[in-house]
Amino acid sequence: MRDEPSVPEQERAHRDVVSFVRRGERLTQGRQNAWDRLSSFYVIDPPRGERDTLPAEGVRLDPAEEFGRRAPLVVEVGSGTGDNIVAAALAHPERDHLGVEVYLPGLAQTLSRAERSGSPQNLRMMPLDAQRALPAMLPEGSIDELWVYFADPWPKQRHHKRRLINPPFLDAVLPLLAEGAAFRLATDWAQYAHHMRQQLDQRPELALMHPDGPAPEGTSSDPIPPNMPSTGWAPRFEGRVKTGFESKGRAAGRLIWDLAYTRVPRPPAPDRASSPEAQQEA
The whole model's pTM is what? Predict the structure, then answer.
């Protein structure tokens, strides 16, 4: 067994807080066949670091080199079994699409879905922890659209730190968004929708795409926080495929909450020549 690197206990505990749970990784024979046949083309599989969901230090990803062209890049974090990312790659051949998913059976199912749907060439998958891998591998400003659909809501209070939409994830991915990039999210849990609005609305890097958009209509089987914003919600994104998570949420009587933000322009770099320090040096 490999020795763990020596780090302070507090740092180790913080580092080990992740938003996902690794479930059974065994593949059915059909999924194994799809993986063996298709993964060499579709799966970006870099050398690993201290864990098998982390890239080795110094590993970089150049989207233009990976896809063989320079095109707008759409990234879906938690792409599941590929419903959205495969449909998007087929519908938009002018864009490149990267799905990030740590669940191996989901990745294998995505490969099988891609093959059945026509084998889009503008699709890649990456079996890594998005929060840690994306900022380590991608250049800043390289993502033109970011999707997070139906992430685990971690409803228990003691598990809220494991929610994906929290400061560590936002600190990691927001610098990767190009100016004007869209950040689209959806959930069927009202408490998580409220949590996401609290986290995202306060970020100076983001602006609501639909500041006057109404909340979803109807009653919900889960409690809606009394201070839930009544506006700022997005209409259903036409590019979002209805997945099993959404169907289960609706069947349970929950509403679907869509959010959409845009990456605001970065502030201009300070003029070094006119800074007080430079004038003093002169």
Answer: 0.87
